[in-house]
């Protein structure tokens, strides 16, 4: 193809990524609203409370692997049940940094756990972001290139790379980054206080918003509608004031703008 034809083909494919980009922007807004509710601070405080009662190495190890498991589940659910994708990381991780320091958890291990939870689900599960990747991107482009493939076949083709992700996670947890690593708790607490005032009403509204977003997504088949529904619950519930909605939306778009741009560009290159 000539340069002119290449550019023309690229531009014609950009529109195919617009829906995905808008989904990311809306879910970024939803994620910012979740962070305002304080629900992640509740999780952090519960872990800290449990950690303060551990006096032996075995109990601390149990808490350590519990934290790792919870983070893995959160990362996995961020792709489908609570479709906020990577937007949950700046919401969940900062309140837990001092927990990691007290447990002497290697942050590289946390990065591996998050990577596994963020990537593997959308390789296999055609729900949420997995639906976007497997059906809207992978399957669509296979059809566009003349391959006769059904939606049910696509997840099976992704089992091998998903197994590789699982193997990498196990190596990271039990070999590469299992040794304790020291971090300065004082520096962390200076930027992220351990104790915060939490409005439990906002936490309950956050739970309702998450359920509403998931239900709307499943019913409509649109992540945009799901994110919008969740944001509306936060707004009408009083977690986000009307005068703050523009600021929250702007922060959400800013958080996910790069991902949205990548998805638009990817659609152009796929064309």
TrEMBL record:
Pfam families in alphabetical order: Na_H_antiport_2 (PF13726), Na_H_antiporter (PF03553)
Native source species: Photobacterium aphoticum
Database matches in PANTHER family: AMINO ACID TRANSPORTER YUIF-RELATED
Ranges of residues in domain Putative Na+/H+ antiporter N-terminal: 1-50
Name of the featured protein: Histidine permease YuiF
UniProt keyword list: Cell membrane, Membrane, Transmembrane, Transmembrane helix
InterPro entries named among the record's database cross-references: AA_Transporter-Related, Na/H_Antiport_NhaC-like_C, Na_H_antiport_N
Transmembrane annotation, as ranges: 12-35, 56-76, 82-101, 113-134, 154-177, 198-216, 222-240, 252-270
Cell compartment(s), UniProt: Cell membrane
Domain Na+/H+ antiporter NhaC-like C-terminal: 113-270
A GO CC term attached to the entry: plasma membrane
Membrane-related topology note: Multi-pass membrane protein
